[in-house]
């Protein structure tokens, strides 16, 4: 992705700072990482018509692929949707007239799976709040996919909404426990445990993988911690992840073709921003050439993610990925090994790829190697030999003859 001057960015996440009260919607933290990602994708899909439409739709297979789990696992999707319908969103803010407004709503007022389509709705009051960038900031999918902990993603979501003011303000410690989803645990009533198991790991992941850096501060009454707040600053090393695809993308022919296919405005702009017009156009042309694919949007999602090759006619199912041409020259054994590793990665499902990374990282003996892997992924120079051995175990024969 090319560097884009921040002053040229457009979109909801790039608007000017709110001068007065910054409102926040507090969502109960008792959501799994998968449910949090699902919630963000549903909101992204619905955002363009959040106020004008009472119901929204997205292809169920596309939804599964976008949050990174088996696209045939409808039971998991049902369970996650049920969790969102049972989750409470609460806001306490100043309205346009400066009067205090408190409200509560289920995160989803309705969800249904029928004919391979997920249909869902928000309550009118919550939809109004979610659509206002002064109240609720959309989470870029490129940032979301980097999180491996539900507590870290919960902390990021609740802090990112205050990025322009530089601080979350003081939260009563009981509210913070609720936001992290541990309010029902006696173990986390002790701040020492809460800090060691929830706060420190979540802060570390947010600071390492997101576009902001957060610093916790506490307030005490005697020796007891009563409140907590987080100071927030932009992470200069990862600020590029904050790109909210600009309106300029709407003028291109590739954007028009995506919209004609049924891709939402925001998703089309995010794809163009993340992958570039040339790659999106190539994948789009490939998908459009396929006859009998039931869900072309789902297929395109998988193609851009690198996990699709061919779908049986009339099914829209994903077959194992075909080897793709690598941008790495094959003139040396090392380049050939890397090419094969990248092909093996492409052949895995999104869920498998996440699990592969976690498994490999857990096997690294020291922080220096783990940091290099987090920075460079499967192209990590410090872990090249270990990576080759790992993929030979995952897919025997991968490295055969690569020397």
What can you tell me about this protein's structure?
With 403 residues, this protein is an alpha+beta fold. 43% of the residues lie in helices and 13% in strands. The chain has helices at residues 33-46, 60-67, 74-85, 124-130, 141-144, 150-160, 173-179, 191-209, 253-261, 265-275, 277-288, 296-305, 333-346, 350-362, 367-376, 384-394, and strands at residues 25-27, 56-59, 88-94, 100-106, 110-114, 117-121, 171-172, 212-221, 224-234. It is built from 16 helices and nine strands. The protein has a three-stranded antiparallel sheet with strand order 1-3-4, covered by helices on one side. The protein folds into four domains: 13-132, no CATH class; 139-244, Arc Repressor Mutant, subunit A (Orthogonal Bundle); 250-305, no CATH class; 333-394, no CATH class. The longest helix is centred in the middle third of the chain and has 19 residues, at 191-209.
List the helices and strands and how they pair.
Blueprint: E1 25-27, H1 33-46, E2 56-59, H2 60-67, H3 74-85, E3 88-94, E4 100-106, E5 110-114, E6 117-121, H4 124-130, H5 141-144, H6 150-160, E7 171-172, H7 173-179, H8 191-209, E8 212-221, E9 224-234, H9 253-261, H10 265-275, H11 277-288, H12 296-305, H13 333-346, H14 350-362, H15 367-376, H16 384-394
Antiparallel strand pairs: 1-3, 2-6, 3-4, 5-6, 7-9, 8-9
Keywords:
single chain, 403 residues, alpha+beta, Arc Repressor Mutant, subunit A, 16 helices, 43% helix, globular, disordered N terminus, DNA-directed DNA polymerase activity, Initiator Replication protein, Initiator_Rep_WH1, WH_DNA-bd_sf, WH-like_DNA-bd_sf
């Amino acid at each position: 992705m090319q560097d884009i001057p921040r002053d040229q960015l457009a979109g909801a996440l790039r608007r000017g700072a709110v001068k007065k009260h910054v409102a926040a919607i507090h969502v109960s933290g008792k959501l799994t990482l998968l449910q949090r990602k699902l919630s963000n994708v549903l909101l992204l899909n619905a955002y363009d018509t959040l106020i004008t439409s009472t119901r929204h739709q997205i292809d169920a297979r596309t939804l599964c692929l976008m949050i990174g789990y088996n696209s045939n696992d409808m039971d998991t999707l049902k369970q996650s949707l049920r969790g969102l319908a049972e989750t409470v969103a609460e806001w306490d803010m100043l309205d346009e007239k400066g009067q205090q407004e408190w409200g509560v709503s289920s995160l989803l007022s309705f969800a249904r799976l029928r004919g391979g389509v997920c249909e869902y709705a928000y309550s009118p009051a919550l939809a109004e709040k979610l659509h206002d960038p002064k109240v609720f900031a959309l989470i870029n999918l490129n940032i979301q996919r980097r999180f491996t902990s539900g507590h870290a993603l919960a902390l990021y979501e609740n802090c990112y909404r205050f990025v322009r003011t530089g601080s979350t303000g003081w939260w009563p410690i009981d509210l913070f426990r609720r936001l992290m989803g541990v309010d029902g645990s006696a173990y986390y009533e002790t701040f020492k445990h809460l800090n060691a198991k929830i706060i420190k790991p979540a802060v570390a992941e947010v600071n390492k993988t997101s576009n902001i850096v957060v610093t916790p501060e506490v307030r005490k009454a005697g020796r007891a911690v009563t409140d907590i707040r987080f100071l927030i600053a932009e992470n200069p090393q990862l600020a590029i992840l904050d790109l909210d695809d600009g309106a300029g993308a709407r003028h291109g022919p590739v954007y028009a073709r995506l919209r004609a296919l049924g891709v939402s405005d925001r998703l089309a702009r995010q794809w163009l921003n993340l992958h570039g017009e040339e790659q999106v156009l190539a994948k789009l042309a490939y998908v459009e050439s396929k006859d009998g694919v039931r869900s072309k949007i789902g297929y395109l999602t998988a193609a851009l993610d690198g996990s699709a090759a061919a779908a049986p006619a009339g099914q829209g199912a994903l077959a194992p990925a075909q080897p793709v041409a690598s941008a790495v020259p094959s003139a040396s054994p090392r380049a050939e090994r890397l090419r094969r590793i990248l092909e093996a990665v492409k052949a895995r499902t999104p869920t498998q790829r996440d699990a592969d990374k976690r498994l490999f990282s857990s096997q690294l003996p020291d922080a220096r190697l783990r940091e290099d892997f987090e920075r460079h992924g499967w192209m990590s120079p410090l872990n090249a030999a270990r990576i080759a051995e790992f993929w030979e175990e995952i897919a025997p024969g991968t490295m055969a003859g690569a020397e």
